[in-house]
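Q: Hi! First time asking for a complex rather than a single chain. Here are the components, and I think there are two in total. Is that enough to go on?
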Amino acid sequence: MENHIKVSIKNLSLWYGSNQALDQITMDMPEKKITAIIGPSGCGKSTLIRCLNRMNDLIEGCRTTGEILIDGQNVYDRRVDAVEVRRRVGMVFQKPNPFPKSIYENIAYGCRIGGINTKQRLDKIVKESLKEAALWDEVKDRLSDSAMKLSGGQQQRLCIARTLAIEPEVLLMDEPCSALDPIATAKIEDLLRDLKRDYTVVIVTHNMQQAARVSDYTAYLYLGKLVEFGPTRQVFEKPEAELTERYITGRFG
Amino acid sequence: MKPKDALSCWIIFLGSAMALIGFGSAAGSFYIGDALLRLLFVLLGISLLLLLPTSFRLAKQKRSFCWMVAFAAISFALAYLVPSAPPKVGLRDYSIDASLMKFMISSLALVITGPVAASAGFGPLFNFTKHAHQASAYCFLTIAILLILYPLGLIISEISVNGLPGITWEFLTQDVSKHGAEGGIFPALVGTILLIGLTALIALPLGIGCAIYLQEYAKRGRLVRVIRTAVNILQGTPSIVHGLFGLAVFVPLFGISLLSGALIMGFLTLPIVIRTSEEAIRSIPQEIREGSYALGATQWQTIRKVVLPPALPGVITGVVLGLGRAAGETAPIMFTAVYFMGARVPGSLLDPIQALPYHLLELTRYWGAYPVEQNAWATAFLLLAIVLGINAGGIILRERYRQEF
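A: Yes, that's all I need. Here is the structure of the assembled complex.
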């Protein structure tokens, strides 16, 4: 079954100053599927997904060539505003980073800066986003409490809810479970399976079991190059490249 | 309990008691008397001497032993020195009488010697093990705290005791007369408050704006380095230089006036506001900014709604420090804004004012020639109260805006 291609990366290269971090990456990510990016530390996984919503623009001395097409539109086009790209491509970070505000305000923030200000609509969005992120039942009685009082796993789900509130088309997750315990991790993984009904998800992970459990497609990156990309089952059971096999079987990396 | 342990405990007790007495006499401005003071120091010296042989035997490092000899010597020296301090210290027309002199020297001596001696007792008590070091370290850190509190307590108690009786309704609401010997300080009080207010109005937007620019917008490079250096130099500039600059630049434009004074005070306050605000903004984690950008916020939205609110307590602290300093400064305004007598409550920005610190300066100048002592102490008390009030207000504001991270 051929899926619609949501994100298409073409010949993407990236330099931090004179240091090349990504080298001629080309891959297509299908719509409403989970694509996992794996690889050893420093191979450029985070850099790659930070390109998809142009977060690398914030780093001084960072330069890119190549194209990233989302629904056929190049996000690195001169006429495209990075702020607009980030509203279409949401991102959840490695370390939970809620704002030092109330739980409610954390979620409402993205809507407020997008111009939604009526209490009624905000209330509805907050409730729906928290439900979608499977956090509603835990926090519904204390929406005005500080988000910093939540546990690490709750904070991370809050960050997911915050991202869902602005209704992005693509959801980027940069090692979302690396700071969490196994129970919180399991909750996030369950959540991911629900989320792929509505969103195209790209997840960076250090945990190969996690990639195998949740993703539909897997990309293996090594030293800034794309070594292998394909359906997860194929990558894990019959990898084409020897490097991939050695990494997956734990003999390396 | 072994004799040496009993002796060590006695020394620790004596040392702590001496520190407490010293601190108490500093806060209450009293002198405990020649005989008692001498007795305390001699007792301490003898006890330390008695402990010397044991310490010498136990101490693995002879350094600790040398310390004890030194403390014993210091104790005997102080027992001789303090009670025989000179009766009068003359400073032209002002003189401080013997008891005032003695209470300051004796309480300082007690506050320092007490804990040091106590820590000398911990060595033999714990057989010079690591616990002895732990206990002595605790003692030395206590001294550090006491030494910081000592001058503060001294200043506040001295000024309150002398100044409070002079604070009356007439003093607060009347104009100056007879070179400050009679009448009150109403115009100076109003002048100081207006000056601080206007200074805040000038320094706040500029200072916070500059801090935001330096931390969030400016690219790291030569320009930022130059600006930072300039801010540092501005902070290091003596306040009298600010005053002369104001005289040369603002007085020709605005005359000797509230506005000239506030502009100069603004310059004086600016570097403090900039540096503390920068510090506060820098302390906001980068991840939080990234979280905001990732939701499609622009840079200004991020600064305004995500960075500034949690940075606000720190910014307020800086503002309060700056304004507290401005409230007490004399040099920058003496050529640019104030008259001693004759200036009323200003009707406009271009009128001259009176101000408390300058008023106090003039009063001390007339000290001896006119009976101004009571009013001078009362003015000092009021000035101190305003500065402490600004600080207290700042702390309250900061706590109100403090959010958890």
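A: The first helix of chain B runs from residue 3 to 28. Let me know if you'd like any chain examined more closely.
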